[in-house]
Design brief:
The protein has helices spanning 15-26, 71-76, 107-117, 122-138, 152-163, 170-175, 180-188, 196-207, 217-231, 274-281, 359-371, 373-394, 410-417, 461-481, 490-495; strands at 7-11, 30-34, 46-49, 52-55, 61-62, 85-86, 90-96, 99-104, 211-214, 235-237, 242-248, 251-257, 263-264, 267-270, 296-306, 315-319, 331-336, 344-345, 348-358, 402-408, 448-450. It is α+β, with helices and mostly antiparallel strands and 496 residues long. It folds into three domains: 7-47 and 221-292 and 434-495, FAD/NAD(P)-binding domain (3-Layer(bba) Sandwich), CATH 3.50.50; 90-208, no CATH class; 296-417. The relative contact order is 0.18. The structure holds flavin-adenine dinucleotide. Residues 11-17, 34-37, 42-44, 56-60, 62, 241-242, 271-273, 276, 298, 417-418, 424-425, 452-453, 459-462, 464 line the site of flavin-adenine dinucleotide.
Length: 496
């Protein structure tokens, strides 16, 4: 099939880059993708240890409800096409001493459980549930089947309902509750200085049936997108880090690839993180718009549990006391993976744990690894032991049955993504901040744009998806404006 001779280079093979590529290929463009790692997927990834699959990414994928605007786009890029979706029973469960509390898909069930635990928090519980319902209304996913659109005035009221939380951080929200278990739920998942609305919106997305997990997890989802890209004839060059660009008369003429020949392009889409795009490749100052908000990263372990069953399922939050508060948060998330095959074998079950690390503590991890690798390794081991001990204390039946398989930190993400603090979502919103977008345009360049989660705080997979689609539209517009030779778009050609 003939394609147009307008050649587009995509730099970075994460979700944004793969999405942009798939849409461009479907519309007849000639696309090449350059990725610095050995595989595509970017942060949507995982790896294997001793035959067990470690899933790095998806906790929830926004856009699994067919009513959601993202759903058909995820289908189109292969992520949800003929893929079953796993729905956990609860967004997460928190445990404190012998009591547990879950944020169920059914928010009324959550309200009832909360009230049973703490009558004295009734007022705040009702406000919280009402705020979650407000977001569900704003998403047009109300009703028992989460498929009901919301009338205009209900939406207006919903917005008013949410204004109460605008100036509350997660910590402020937790402090409004008296019961320790409710405090963990409100301030333990999305923590500290982050906007409390982040918890409300994330839970509402889950409760509206829009936050499932594609079966097979992160590796399978990235592979499905890669297969779609390659199936449309796109070329992927892995182990091809782009190190610079030749700019002539305000246009990117070619890109430089580490240890390989330069590549000439008509149009460049930078799907790398902002710092890499601006300072490492284009040698430009990074616009201030990218520094609003704050970033975070995390400390993880992959653990093997002897046996064939677990006393918890999906995500559970546990309170932790440790002498390392400068390096890790106060709550530990413990998670298993019923939707991934290679996590149960040889009489053992793989689980993972995660501590959120603030921007400050993430930078400390990165610095420690660079300045004192022995101390870094020792600290990693000590915190991994705390993870195991915390699980054993909370679930005594697992005593002596847990072993460490792998451990990674913000410094690991720093080496992988290149971000100074190992951040893998874009700037997260603090209290008082609302989601904000940054233009894809690069000042002074006519034929190049940026397209990654960093253009739209707080980032995440759906934002990367949206950025990829927008990048396709920008490239198409540029091609039309410049009257570059256009052949029949692939979709039209296929329809004939
Ligand atoms: C532990 C963890 C949990 C997460 N959980 C969720 C979740 O539950 N839900 C959710 O929505 N999101 C989640 N995310 C975030 C999500 O993974 C990211 O938002 C998303 O993958 C970002 O996609 P992207 O394409 O914009 O950027 P990236 O994934 O960062 O892709 C950029 C790509 O560019 C490549 N690159 C960098 N420099 C160069 C260069 N010089 N030359 C060529 N290529 C280069 C990188 O290797 C990478 O492949 C999670 C991430 C992590 C790590």
């Amino acid at each position: 099939m003939e394609k147009n001779c307008f050649k587009i280079g995509i730099i970075g093979g994460g979700v944004s880059g793969l999405t942009a590529g798939i849409y461009l290929l479907q519309n007849g463009f000639d696309v090449e993708l350059y990725e610095k790692c050995g595989v595509v997927g970017g942060n949507l990834t995982g790896w294997h240890r001793q035959g067990y699959e470690i899933d790095n990414c998806i906790h929830w994928l926004t856009g699994t409800n067919p009513k959601s605007p993202h759903y058909k786009v995820w289908k189109n890029v292969g992520a949800l096409d003929k893929v079953a979706v796993y729905y956990a029973e609860a967004f997460f469960t928190a445990k404190y001493n012998e009591q547990t509390l879950s944020l169920y898909k059914n928010v009324e069930k959550t309200r009832a459980e909360m009230l049973l635990i703490s009558r004295e928090d009734e007022r705040e519980i009702n406000y919280f549930i009402s705020a979650v319902n407000s977001v569900i209304n704003l998403l047009n996913m109300a009703g028992a089947n989460n498929d009901k659109s919301t009338p205009f005035f209900t939406k207006l009221l919903s917005l008013l309902n949410l204004s109460r939380y605008l100036n509350l951080s997660a910590e402020n929200l937790a402090n409004k509750f008296k019961h320790p278990l409710l405090k963990i739920v409100m301030g333990g998942y999305i923590q500290g200085e982050f906007a409390s609305l982040a918890l409300i919106v994330s839970y509402a997305i889950f409760a509206s049936g829009n936050g499932g997990i594609p079966e097979g997890g992160s590796i399978e989802m990235a592979n499905n997108m890669r297969r779609k890209f390659e199936g449309l004839g796109g070329k992927i060059y892995t182990n091809s880090a782009v190190t610079g660009a030749k700019i002539v008369n305000g246009k990117v003429e070619s890109i430089m690839i580490k240890n390989k020949q330069n590549v000439n392009l008509d149009y460049a889409i930078f799907c790398t993180d902002t710092l890499t795009t601006y300072s490492k490749i284009l040698n430009l100052n990074t616009p201030n718009a990218y520094s609003k908000g704050t970033t975070f990263s995390s400390f993880h372990t992959a653990l093997l549990i002897d046996g064939s069953s677990l006393p918890f399922c999906d995500e559970t939050l546990l309170l932790v006391k440790s002498p390392y508060s400068k390096f890790i948060g106060k709550t530990l998330t413990v998670k298993n993976f019923p939707y991934i095959k290679n996590t149960v074998k040889n009489g053992k079950i793989l689980i993972e744990t995660m501590f959120i690390c603030s921007q400050e503590s993430s930078l400390k991890w990165v610095k420690l690894r660079k300045t004192n690798i022995q101390k870094y390794i020792k600290r990693k081991r000590a915190i991994a032991k705390i993870c195991i001990k915390t699980i054993e204390q909370n679930f005594p039946t697992l005593q002596g049955k847990i072993s460490l398989l792998d451990c990674w930190t913000p410094a690991s993400y720093n080496r992988y993504t290149g971000h100074s603090g190992g951040a893998y979502m874009s700037n997260v919103l603090k209290k008082g901040q609302l989601p904000h977008k940054t233009s894809q345009k690069i000042k002074g360049l006519k034929n190049a744009i940026t397209a990654s989660q960093w253009n739209n705080a707080p980032g995440g997979l759906p934002i990367a998806l949206e950025q990829g689609v927008l990048a396709y539209k920008s490239a198409k517009k540029y091609q039309k404006l410049n009257s570059v030779n256009i052949k029949k778009p692939l979709r039209q050609a296929l329809a004939k």
